Structures are given as C-alpha cells and as structure tokens.
Amino acid sequence: MTTPEDIRHAQPLDSLSIQYIKGVGPRRAALFRKKGISTVEDALFFLPYAYEDRRALKAIADLEVGALETFVGSIFAAGPSRTRRGRLYQIIVGDETGRIACKWFRFKDAYFANRFGPGQRVVVSGRVGTYGLHKELHHPDIEPLDEDDDASEWLHGGRLVPKYSATEGLSAKLLRSIMDNVVEGYADQVEEIFSSELRREHGLLPLSEAVKTLHRPGDEEDLEALNRGTHPAHRRIVFQELFLLELGLARRREATQREARSVTYTGASALRRRLLDSLPFALTGAQRRVIEEIDADLRGPHPMNRLLQGDVGCGKTVVALAAACPVLERGRQVAFMVPTEILAEQHTRTLGRLVEPLGVRMGLLTSATKGSERRGLLEAAADGSLQLVVGTHALIQEGVDFAALGLAIIDEQHRFGVLQRATLRQKGYTPDVLVMTATPIPRTMALTVYGDLDCSVIDELPPGRGPIETRMVSVNRRDEAHALIRREVAAGRQAYIVYPLVEESEALDLQAATAMYEELRGGPFADVAVDLLHGRMKAEDKESVMRRFSAGETSVLVCTTVIEVGVDQPNASLMLIEHAERFGLAQLHQLRGRVGRGPYPSHCLLVAHYPLSEDARARLAVMAQTTDGFVIAEKDLELRGPGELVGTRQSGLPELRFANLVRDQQVLEEARRAAFAFLAEDPALERSDHQAMKRAFQRQWSDKVGLLEVG
Ligand code: ADP
Ligand code: MG
C-alpha cells in the first residue's frame, strides 16, 4: 500500500508544500507563505539569522554583570507597573540560587498578555546589568519552556539555539519546532549539485550537511562564525548561490563569444590620429592603455563587450571617441547613448566640436527631436549616411533602424541596467559594445552585475586639476555659504546649487527648487546672473540654459539632479547641495564630480537639514573625508548592505539571498573561477552527472530566461 508518507518522499522538495510538515496546517502554511516559504525546500533554506549560546546554562547567582548570559528559571511574578519614568513590564525569575528582575520599558501589552504567569518555566538570555545593588536584565529574550517536555528542553535550551525571524502567528519557539521537523524529515534529501571532486577542490561541505549544521549546530561548532555568517556551512551555501550566478554570467559571455564579428579592424586609424592631434591635451597613460585594450577587442574574432570604469572627470568621452574612429572609417555607424536629454545635448556639442571638423556626420536624436528633423535623422540612420548618432536610450527602444551599426557606446551605465545590450541584440544588431560608468564599482560588484563583461579601468585623472574641499554646513549658516559663492563668482568662477528631486514628491521638490531660485535671485544673488534648470523644462529651454552656463554667461545655476551625470564645465568651482542628507553616496559623488574639473581649487558644501539619521551622518562624513570614488563605492556598499546594491535590481540578475558581497568577496572570486572552468568543460550542461546542477541553475535564473537563453 502507498502511504501519504511514500508520496511525500517521492516528490521533489521544491514542489512539496510546507503544509505537510508536522505542526503546520493550512492556517500556518498561509503564514509561512507570507514569509516567502511555500515548499519544504524553501523551508530548508530559511536559515537562522543568529544563534544563541545556551550550552552552559548559568545559575542565577553566577550571572556576571556585563556579560551576555542565558539561564533557565521559574517565574515568581509578572506584570506591568508604573514608575516615575513611565510604564514598564517586569518579570521576576528565580532558581535555587536566587532571583533576578527582567524589565521592559518599551513593550506591547499584547505580547505579554497571558504568556507569562507565576510558576511558568522560562529560558532567558540577555546582557546582565545592575540597578543599585541588584543585578537585572533589560529587554532580554524570554521564552516559555514546557516543563515536562524533555525534547523541547533540549531543542530550546542546553545547546546552540538557532533563532529564526518570527512573525505574527509564528513565534520564535514555534518556528524552531517546525524547522526541526523539516530538517529531521528532509534535510537528507536536498539535492547535491557539486561532484565530490569539486567539493574537495573548494573545501565545500555536502549540501545536506551544511543545511543540517545551520539548523542544528552541534555544541562544538564555532558560535562566532555562525553568527557572522562565515561558518563553513554558510560558505557552502553562499558558494553555491554565487557559483550559479556566475554560471549564468559565464553563459551570457560565452554567447557573445560564439558570435563572429562582421568587420574586423586592422592597422592604425588615420581618423583617430587626426582626432588626437586636434586635442589641446595629451592623453593620460591610463587613457592610452584603455584604447589599446579596446583595439585588441576590435581586432579579435568576437564582438567587443567591454565595461569601461573611470571616476568622474577622468576623460572617458575621448576614449570612446577614439574607439569609434576605426569603426567610422570602415563605414560603420556608431550610436552614443546617454541617460538624459541634457547630457545628450551636451555630448552633441562636445563631440561635434571634435569630430565635425574631421568630416564625420553626426546627429542628435532624443524624444524631443520632432517632425521633419526627426524624419530626416531616421532616414539618414537607415541609409547609413548618418555616421554618429547621439541620443538617450530611446535611441534603441524606439523605431530607429541603422544601416550598419558597428559600435554602441552606452555611457553612464548605472542609470541603464544591463538590459540595453539585450535589446540591441534582440533588434538583430551585434555591434561592438562599450559600456561606460563613472560610478566606481567595487570589485565584487563588477564581478556580479557586470560579470559577463571584460573590464577596463581609467585610474588616473588628467593632470592639473584643482583639489576639492568638502564640508558640511548647517542650515543656519547658509549665509556664509552664499558669501563664499559670491567670492567665487567675483573671481570669475561659476557655481551650482543643487536641489534633491525624488519621484514621490516631485511636484513639491520642484516647487522648493523654484521658490529658492526666486529667493536667491531677488536676495543674495540679486546682482549675479542666476539660472534655473530642471528636468521638467522644455528641451529648448534646457538647452539654452546649459548653453549660457557653458559660455560663462550665467554664474550660478540652480538646478535639480538633472546635472548629476556628465555635465562638464571646468570653470565651475563651487557646488552647494541642499538637503544633502537625502542623497545616496554614489549620487553625492557624481554630483561633486561636476566641480574640480579645472585648475582651480573647488568647494563642495553639503547643507544638511536636521534631524539626521545615523546613516545620513555617516554618508556625509565619508564625503568630507575622501574624493576617491573607489573608497566611496566600498563605503556605499558597506552602508547600504547587500540587499540594496546599486544596479542589481535593474540589472536583470537573480537576487542574492545568502551572499553578502561585502563579507563574501573571496568566496565570490573562487566561485566565479570555478563556474567559468565548469562551463568550459561542459558548455551546454549536457553531462549526465551535471543534471542536478542544470536544474538548480535553471531555477535560479528561471525568470531571466529572456535575457539568458537558458539551455
Ligand atoms: P568623464 O570620464 O567623467 O566622462 P569627460 O570625458 O567628460 O570625463 O572629461 C572631463 C574633462 O577632461 C573634459 O573637459 C575633457 O576634455 C578633459 N580631458 C579628458 N582627457 C584629458 C587629458 N588627458 N588631459 C586633460 N584634459 C582631459
Ligand atoms: Mg562622461
């Protein structure tokens, strides 16, 4: 006879509902689903967020002041009381050796109601403090114990106890019992994806062992490593997650390497020679090196797929243009894509100055390009007579056809996500692709978000740039900041005053920026040329404001973050950022990069409005300390934490559940090497002993199929 038990065992864990676990019925199953846990497999990978040391339970008399201690006792009295300082909830716990008070100063009545009464056995853990001569605990963890249940006593005390994040209806204690049932019943069945050789090579525990250890750590396990998430059992799971991620990236990369290029470029480019000769400066060593790296790609057998990283102002634009030269010379078209219209217009001006004298026909195509001008440009793109097209990403989304697109340059990639490349490919183009970003990406990020690209770095600024001094200014000393602006303007320099603009409160923010502009123009800057720039203005208005600022006709530009990326005015030497606390680090760095582009010493003034969160304070402190984009990027990663990385959400990559890119850098690099080597041996994941791996891979990348062509 087939029992329900057999049926359960025959089913793969990822389709076995959590409802069949002992202790879980339909009602609790619904609560689990709210936590994102619907199957037994989900539950097995619902890992404790911390562990508590209940190996050595102490007698109450032996509790040490200042230490984190755990003890078991019985409740003598429990209830709310009122003191001069307000309400508190107090529970007195005792054992044979003494009594101690546990106090909660912030509490919900509902939490304590009917849970704790005299005689109830409890396990308590927390830091021991003092009140006068007495020891006491404030806000400890406290859980009821069932007196007659030995198993429960063992499960919830007397060992390293896992802590699961509890929610309404699923208490920590209940979760622990249920999770113990899950592990007991199914941990042995989790599917291993790594061969024993691979595990040996990388020092990996078998998966089922890792899962068991994390849910039921033995007394001998390293508590600290468990709590830091660096235990070998964690490492095993993190490695697997990162391995599968990198495997996907390796496949994407491999897909580009299967493509053959339609034109190969050989020899020196006369056009480039003329371009470089016309520049008023010599390229930096880093710029020259990167151009060589690009040339090697252009001479290679496959389309280029390269990320160019370089801090703001390092000179990526000329490098991109140098890359475009051989392509243009061979009669291919180049698309130069930027995230905003303002930037597209600016690029058109700067690029135009450089390439039009060389006879290159270029055009600007954005959503603001209308009517016959638009039709003309579209025709010229389609018949190939338009050689260089600058535009926003609308360039590839809308119906723009190219006769022969040879190179796509995607500037300021962090605003785009990685999807653009996929879009290009879907339209049937397989151009060389150069992605440029000024957001310095920590190495770990580069290996994930851009893990399928080759990477070049410009790590040198052009010589002769003035230093930037950054400081915080409190709101009530804004006058001094304005005085500094007036001094700079009197010396012939220009300044930006930037307002934050967030989508949720866009209308209000715009109002604030506009009001401030009027106020400044009427008051402190009455005798100074001031302009206003924001994204809602008409394209031609924006363009004329930018033109006036570039020409030095306006001295102070009040603007929203539209100027964040790419705007280049070397004469600007001061930036005042209002509500600096509302910006992220990467954004502040981008903004600040608009000054310090000329030989003059520059200032960046961060006006912070109180109250400041701790995070905001930390961000502003980082800004005041360093102008090094890579240091800032690392700090950013640290402050944001792994859940919220720049770009990962739009990047079209699976989300990381276990890996922490700050903590797990080394694991990432090892997993990446392993994944690339693995794929080299079995590119289509065809080998019979790789089928479990293939399934896990397809599952992790399942909703990304469109991007990936998972085989
Ligand atoms: P980003 O890398 O931020 O895009 P840009 O390409 O806008 O930087 O360059 C910033 C400024 O530096 C521009 O005015 C550009 O003309 C100038 N520049 C670029 N390369 C050099 C160089 N080697 N020496 C001096 N100035 C340079
Ligand atoms: Mg740029």
Question: How would you describe this structure to a colleague?
Answer:
This protein has 27 helices and 21 strands. The protein has 711 residues and is an alpha/beta fold. α11 runs antiparallel to α13 and α14 crosses α21. A seven-stranded parallel β-sheet has the order 11-12-10-13-14-9-15, sandwiched between helices. Among the domains are: 103 residues, Nucleic acid-binding proteins (OB fold (Dihydrolipoamide Acetyltransferase, E2P)), CATH 2.40.50.140; 189 residues, Rossmann fold (3-Layer(aba) Sandwich); 159 residues, 3-Layer(aba) Sandwich (Rossmann fold), CATH 3.40.50.
In short:
This protein has 27 helices and 21 strands. The chain is α/β, with parallel strands linked by helices. It is globular.
Determine the CATH superfamily of the domain at 270-458: P-loop containing nucleotide triphosphate hydrolases
Biggest beta sheet attributes: 7 strands, parallel
At the first level of CATH, what is the class of the domain at 270-458? Alpha Beta
CATH domain topology of the domain at 270-458: Rossmann fold
Q: Work out the number of β strands.
A: 21
**Helix percentage:** 40-55%
- Rg, alpha carbons: 31 Å
Number of helices: 27
What structural class do you assign from the helix and strand content? alpha/beta
Q: Which percent band covers the strand fraction?
A: 15-25%
